[in-house]
Amino acid sequence: MSKQHFLFLIVIFWSSLSLAQEKYESDVVSEDAIIKALYETISGPKGERRDWDRLKFLLTPDARLIPTRPATEHKRVPCYLTLDQFIEQGDQWLIDNGFFETEIARTSETYGLITHAWSTYESKWTPDGKPFARGINSIQLMNDGERWWIVNMYWAAETENNPLPKKYLK
């Protein structure tokens, strides 16, 4: 590869990165905006691939997505995923099934440039369908002085033995 060809590829790469940043810039201007973008990014109809570039723009490079999984009937354990692992595990399932998740309540606490949001959600197969699940996303956010980032997201679905507390509902 010639030096000119290599430099051309670098310029193209940085140009496309810059366009992505401009495209999603409004998603990271506030806590409300980034959480709204998070829910929009994972939601979509059957047959539609999610905008994973948008989700990548919201999360820090080392962010973890941590669902809880049943270990036994009464015990749950965390499952630590990188964003790439989350996409690999969920991409085809989301395309095959369709999935819409919306925030129905939020409780947040902030100290300086960090925020912890308890975001109560409900999940549906269609935008106006009946909810089939509810739970809480525990979202760690950071503002680096220029924009908001999702540092980690840890979630658990509501169960019969673990109903949502009233304080996390509207």
Describe this structure in words.
The protein is α+β, with helices and mostly antiparallel strands. It has helices at about 5-25, 30-40, 50-60, 85-95; strands spanning about 60-70, 75-80, 100-110, 115-125, 135-145, 150-155. It contains four helices and six strands, in the order H-H-H-E-E-H-E-E-E-E. Strands 2-1-6-5-4-3 form a six-stranded mixed sheet. Strand 3 (about 100-110) and strand 4 (about 115-125) form a beta hairpin.
Task: Please write out the topology.
Elements: H1 3-24, H2 31-42, H3 52-58, E1 59-70, E2 76-78, H4 83-97, E3 100-111, E4 114-124, E5 133-143, E6 148-157
Parallel strand pairs: 1-6
Antiparallel strand pairs: 1-2, 3-4, 4-5, 5-6
Helix pairs in contact: 2-3
In a few lines, what is going on in this structure?
With 170 residues, the protein is α+β, with helices and mostly antiparallel strands. Helices cover 33% and strands 35% of the residues. The longest helix has 22 residues, at 3-24.
Search tags:
single chain, 170 residues, alpha+beta, six-stranded mixed beta sheet, 4 helices, 6 strands, 35% strand, globular
- Briefly note the structural class of the backbone: alpha+beta
Question: N- to C-terminal separation?
Answer: 60 Å
- The main sheet orders its strands as 2-1-6-5-4-3
Average pLDDT reading: 91
Number of strands: 6
| Proportion of strand residues | 25-35%
**Succession of helices and strands:** HHHEEHEEEE
Globally, the shape reads globular
User: What about the largest sheet?
Assistant: 6 strands, mixed
- Indicate the low-confidence ranges by residue numbers: none
Number of distinct helices: 4
